[in-house]
Amino acid sequence: MPITLIINVTAITLTWKEVAMSRKDGIILFSLGVIIWAIGTFVYRLAGSYFFESSTVGYWLNVIVTGALYSAIGIGLMKWCRIESQYWLHGAMCLALPGMLGEVLVLSTFSELMVNMQPETAGRYGAFLFGGYSSLIGFSWLISMKVSSQRVISN
Questions:
Q1: Is it the case that residue 58 has pLDDT exceeding 50?
Q2: pTM (predicted TM-score)
Q3: Alpha helix (H) ranges present in the chain?
Q4: Residue 105 to residues 41, 49, 53: CA-CA distances in angstroms?
């Protein structure tokens, strides 16, 4: 995770600066995305019927809470990597892509992999995933655009 050290010779001050997303950051975020997706899939394989088949209110609560968690965890990881806010959309894509691709396999073989859920639940599960990944990517895009537009205005 590269950090740029800026030395202002006239004032003799040292400051740390966030940097653009590096290839290493992308690999780290992608790898974490694989791990998060694998853990989430395992949890839903074991207890998915509780989250998706118990009640409509429980389902929507799960969608909202998980979408907020996706965003909070994603932003926290990007801050941890010291990625500039204007590059958060790139980071969000690295985090979300493994899960989005992995879910193609899960949803295409839903009955065999998610044995504790009814086959009809695949639609709810897919919608839930779409909502979570959309929350992460959408929130990161909003922050990236806000920061980018503020930099254009201030320059």
A1: yes
A2: 0.77
A3: 23-52, 56-80, 88-108, 110-113, 122-154
A4: 11, 19, 21
Distance CA 53, CA 120 (A): 10
Task: State the helix-helix crossing angle for 23-52 and 122-154, rounded to 10 degrees.
Answer: 140
Angle in degrees, CA 138, 139, 145, rounded to 5: 85
In the block, tokens 């997706």 appear at 37
Q: What's the sign of the alpha-carbon dihedral 83, 86, 89, 90?
A: negative
What is the domain partition of the chain in residue ranges? 20-150
Encoded tokens for 112 = 């065999």
Burial 40-49 (b: 16+ CB within 10 A, else e): bbeebeeebe
